[in-house]
Design a protein that fits this description.
mainly alpha, disordered C terminus
């Protein structure tokens, strides 16, 4: 019989799906009801994801077979440490972004609430599914909702960037479908565990075509992961989107990373026969090029939103380069880095709107112009009465936003002693000391790819912070509501918790990485009949 806790595996998909359906039935005019349903759904997802994190922290892999069909025929959901961690990140980011949207963005257009719920449903389904076909289904559900969120709020820039985003991802979906078709034509199955079990026995004359199908599939994932040169669309799209939409969209690139990590290690791991380590060099090289491109984009960004988007590119490139090294300890450090970067970049996307709200239109361009050409005029000090008229709330707000921006800058740049630095150290340590032997030349390249982008981020963040809080022309100061700042504080507090509890968090990530590199338990659970499983 199935224990009640096994049903929790499907709950992160069912909860937002039912909430989104109820919102569609309720209609877009009943804002209070929709907001209440959204809060209840995202809060319940937080509770469920925390429970699944605890449940998954064991060697046992939990399986949920819909209809109790065998894995090769039915829909299979798989819960292990990696999927539980990704569901938790999506739930935390979703809760923070949704609460932030309640200040004003949820009223900026129709159908925001159901789109947001279907976005979470697609994300959680992609992280939990155990076969390629349903991965494609959840990808499309996730992307369909993201198209609406990217365009939410209208505006010329948003529509232009959103259309670019839609076209690129439709082409990626076409590649996904082609790759899945080729893989199924050769292997006769789309279940990931079943595919992994058959990889070693693929006939020599079919292996080249199978690897071609996997390569096409990989390109589709890497488009979503924004690997260079496939990620040109990301900074502009995320910069144009509304703040809560950009925050939840920022984890979509990590869905591509997750798919690459899961499928590559299953189908090109040590048990894949002649296909072992297939594409490893391309992953590492592509990741390094993405880091370089993202670092240049960070330095070239003239507004905070594009700076946040460029930081997503650096994060994705770092993860791809580390994953391509094929070492469990390095992958563990990369997963720890992934958790911290998702939370910090999500906080930055939310913070950008709060910082920009009190600034004049074009303030970033004016600040760069003054810096380059010295066209700004020195302002005279105001009279004491004028300074007193500003009042206490505005300096307190600016100080709070400035401190939050500084925290985001330190986290994203990876400066000590915060979690970003600890994650980079965890990635480098096994590369520079591989079992007491001399490090490989690629280890030094990875080290440069971790350190130099941090320097670029520091320069860009310092420049942006000075422009935003010091040198920009004074705009009309506005208050920040509690419901807007609390989500930012929540995400930054979780980043601080990752720093304080770095040992247990890194241990969890390392255990997840070791299970990925040695997937015997995964294969046994999916293809066998796990005790108490469905």
């Amino acid at each position: 019989m199935t224990a009640w806790i096994d049903h929790l595996v499907i709950a992160p998909i069912i909860v937002p799906m039912l909430a989104g359906a109820a919102m569609v039935i309720a209609g877009s005019d009943r804002r209070r009801l929709l907001a209440g349903l959204g809060i209840a759904s995202t809060a319940l997802l937080l509770l469920l994801s925390a429970t699944l994190l605890v449940v998954a922290d064991a060697p046992e892999v939990r399986i949920y077979r819909l209809g109790d069909w065998p894995a090769s025929f039915g829909i299979v959901l798989v819960l292990d440490r990696l999927s539980a961690m990704m569901v938790a990140l999506a739930s935390v980011l979703g809760f923070a972004a949704f609460v932030f949207s309640l200040a004003r963005w949820h009223r900026a257009g129709a159908h925001f609430h159901p789109l947001f719920q279907f976005q979470l449903m697609g994300l959680n389904g992609a992280f939990l599914t155990g076969d390629l076909f349903n991965l494609f289904v959840f990808f499309e559900a996730m992307l369909a909702a993201s198209y609406g969120l990217a365009l939410h709020g209208s505006g010329t820039a948003r529509v232009r960037a959103g259309l670019h985003y839609i076209v690129v991802n439709l082409l990626a979906s076409l590649l996904f479908l082609i790759g899945v078709s080729v893989v199924y034509g050769i292997a006769g199955t789309l279940n990931m565990a079943d595919l992994a079990a058959r990889m070693r026995d693929v006939a020599a004359e079919d292996r080249a075509l199978l690897e071609a199908g996997l390569a096409v599939l990989g390109v589709a994932f890497l488009v979503k992961a924004a690997m260079w040169p496939l990620g040109f669309w990301l900074p502009g799209t995320y910069a144009a989107a509304s703040a809560p939409a950009a925050a939840i969209l920022s984890i979509l690139s990590k869905v591509g990373i997750y798919a690459v990590l899961r499928i590559w290690l299953l189908l090109s791991g040590d048990g894949a026969g002649a296909s072992a380590a297939f594409g490893a060099t391309a992953l590492t090289a592509g990741g390094l090029l993405t880091v370089a491109f993202g670092s240049v984009a960070v330095l070239a960004s003239q507004d905070l939103a594009r700076l946040a988007g460029a930081s997503v590119l650096v994060s994705s490139g770092t993860l791809l380069a580390a994953i391509g090294m094929g070492q469990a300890a390095v992958t563990g450090g990369a997963l720890f880095y992934l958790a911290g970067s998702v939370l910090a970049i999500g906080a930055l996307f939310l913070l950008v709107e709060l910082v920009e709200r009190g600034r004049d239109i074009g303030a970033d361009v004016l600040a760069v112009t003054r810096e380059a050409f010295g066209t700004g005029e020195q302002e005279e000090d105001g009279e004491p009465g004028e300074r007193d008229a500003i009042g206490v709330p505005i300096p307190a707000t600016v100080a709070t936003l400035g401190g939050s921006f500084l925290a985001c800058a330190l986290l994203i740049a990876g400066l000590p002693p915060l979690s970003g630095f600890l994650a980079k150290f965890a990635i480098l340590s096994p590369l520079l000391a591989p079992g007491g032997g001399a490090p490989r030349p690629m280890a030094w390249v990875i080290m440069a790819a971790l350190i130099l982008p941090g320097l670029a981020t520091v320069v860009a963040m310092v420049r942006a912070g000075m422009d935003a809080f010091w040198a920009s022309p004074a705009g009309t100061p506005q208050r920040v509501s509690v419901v807007e700042f609390l989500p930012v504080a929540l995400l930054l507090a979780l980043c601080a918790a990752l720093t304080v509890a770095a040992g247990p968090a890194l241990g969890y990530a390392t255990a997840a990485a070791e299970a990925l590199h040695a997937p015997a338990n995964y294969l046994r659970a999916v293809l066998g009949t796990p005790e108490g499983g469905r």
